[in-house]
Description:
Helix content is 31%, strand content 26%. The protein is of the alpha+beta class. The chain has one domain: Phenylacetic acid degradation B (Ubiquitin-like (UB roll)). Strands 2-1-3 form a three-stranded antiparallel β-sheet.
Amino acid sequence: MNSTRTETQNRREALNETHVWQVYARRKYDEPLHEIGNVMADDVELAQVYARSIYDEFSWVEMVIIPRESIVTVIAS
């Protein structure tokens, strides 16, 4: 199992994709933001490009990205 994790880490480092960004979007202004997925990119500009191109199946009125490491757990089970 450590072998798989190490291989994944090596691939991410080789691709320079070491940060995970959560992607949230809404289709209508009166809807809440919904988590629609995530992208891996080393900087915010590249994460924006990835999010916009990967999750283009709808006409979003708003899309935001948040670095996964910035998410704070409030309740954990």
